[in-house]
Amino acid sequence: MAPELHYQLIVHRRTELQNEAGAHRRAREAVAGRKARESGTERRRVVFGKLRTT
Fold first, then answer.
1. Distance between CA 12 and CA 1 in Å, rounded?
2. Cα dihedral 26/29/30/35 (nearest 10)
3. What are the C-alpha distances in Å from 6 to residues 9, 14, 20?
4. Is 24 strand, coil or helix?
5. 43 contacts: CB under 8 Å, gap ≥ 6
6. Rounded distance, CA 37 to CA 44, Å?
7. HSE-CB of 42 using CA atoms within 13 angstroms
């Protein structure tokens, strides 16, 4: 394989991997944000539940 072609393949694969890593990072952040919102909702439900039973 010609060195120039090999270099272009490496550059292209690096770009692909960086894009995949970015997508994976955004997915993890979305899951973490969803979990944070859900845990906040549960806390509010518990607080209001205690207020109603008091």
1. 16
2. 170
3. 5, 12, 21
4. helix
5. none
6. 11
7. 6
Task: State which amino acid sits at residue 50.
Answer: K
| Tens-binned pLDDT, residue by residue, of the chain (54 aa) | 799 999 999 999 999 999 999 999 999 999 998 888 877 655 555 555 555 555
């859900």: which residue's tokens?
Answer: 38
pLDDT value of position 46? 57
Tokens of 16: 């692909």
For the entire predicted model, the pTM comes to: 0.58
Alpha-carbon dihedral sign for residues 9, 12, 16, 22: positive
